[in-house]
Write a structure and sequence with these properties.
The complex is a heterodimer of chains A (293) and B (237). Chain A has twelve helices and no strands. Chain A is mostly helical and 293 residues long. Chain A has a domain of 204 residues: Orthogonal Bundle (MetI-like fold), CATH 1.10.3720. By secondary structure, chain B is α/β, with parallel strands linked by helices. Chain B has a domain of 55 residues. Chain B contains seven helices and ten strands. In chain B, helix 3 crosses helix 4 and helix 6 crosses helix 7. The radius of gyration of chain B is 18 Å and the shape is globular. The chains are: A mainly alpha (293), B alpha/beta (237). The interface between A and B is medium-sized, with 25 and 26 residues.
Amino acid sequence: MSAVSSAVAAVTTSGSGAGTAVVAGTGEAGSQVRRRRRLSPGRRLPAAPLVGPALVLVLWAAASAAGRLDPAAVPAPWTVLRTGVHLWTDGTLPNDILTSVRRAASGFAIGLAGGVLLALAAGLSRVGEALIDGTVQLNRAIPALGLIPLFILWLGIGETFKVAIIAIVVYIPIYLNTHAALSGIDSRFVELAEVQGLSRFQFVRQIVIPGALPGFFVGLRLGVTGSWLGLVVLEQINATSGLGYLMFQAQNYGQSDVILVGLVVYGIFGLVSDSAVRLIERRVLSWRRTLSN
Amino acid sequence: MAPHTEQLTRSAVRLRGLTRSFGGRTVLDGIDLDIPAGQFTALLGHSGSGKSTLLRAVAGLDHEVEGSGQLTAPERVSVVFQDSRLLPWRRVLDNVLLGTEGKEAAAKGREALAEVGLKGRERAWPSELSGGEAQRAALARSLVREPELLLADEPFGALDALTRIRMHGLLRELWERHRPSVLLVTHDVDEAVALAERVLVLEEGRIGVDVVIDRERPREEYREVLLGALGVTSDVR
């Protein structure tokens, strides 16, 4: 082995000698080096995510101003804005928004709690896994929105059934991702916990749960999206209040501007909630930032 | 099931007829071994010779492995793995303190980090450490527990040659200061001879060679013997 390592040492020495010579050579002829053609797209443009939407808005406004769009089908941006302000000041819009947000939030909260508790029970005990996992997988196979007729029969057409459907839409992705993360914990870390003499509780709190958080956040983001999706469907099928109802009514009276106001509000809901989850995720998983940098 | 590790007040490892097998293949075949308190022992062997199985048995990590025999080990055992095994979501100091409690522990953790040359990196994330630094942190984590026995499973195997030499110096220094019994599993003959007081070679599930290293004598002699025991002859080299 020492014979081998001394041979390696000799090679390294002669190698570095050759290296010096090459460096001297390029030093003299440095100006002749031609830059390679760059294949990466280069630096990102400022405010890049806003450029496309702004362009669409400008085109829309220009086409409306030029009279190229049928105002009954696609009203001008300022008409939509005016309708929005009008609906807001007369109290219709705040009322409907409040109703919708309350539905989505209660459904989401129940779904979140249920998904996390079931995932913990299934991920931390074999009995829990046997009881829960198969059942949830079966539940997943049935599209939650397909349960609407049955739930109306059971719970009536009031708020309870809407909240229940949203909760089901939300709990499934949260359960699936959290459970997968909990059961996929690195066996090397399990061994480490044994060596360090951690109790079962310490093991769960210090290793299993922090290790499962990234998976949980994937599920959380899917759950947030799911709660809005469920809300839209429920409110447009059978509701007497809320944003979806507002839009459904507008469809009956041919008020495309009101429909657009509703869509904008839905869009804002989606953006705000997704950014909120991302912000929390960045804070909680701050140790990951150093990895991606 | 493997028998439970008995706890002795005396800090020493004692194996009697230790047998372990995986799916009918006997990996350890009735091993008898005593490691006196404070001795630095290296265990050599080919890959697949069962040296990690032996270490895991002593560490009490061989759940659901078939086996028999008697095994006694001290109460406070630390293990250093080939990978540093730092939890990526805990800062370095919190990693070192894993499994300890109380205010004194934190002070000890800082002390241990200083001892391995990581003073000032307490608040760093593991992903910010180099391979050598991460392994130093792992050493600090094992030191905090004031082990009577330190088990090391190829702890320097994943490090580059220069870092490995520095880590050899550090491990030897820590051992001289704290005097735990050490069982170092390695496949590197030079590493074993440079660090240990006693070198064992595991072959076919038994301890084939057991030599005490006299630091006065040239290392070359031991290398020949140990490489011979591992089946590496000079014409192969």
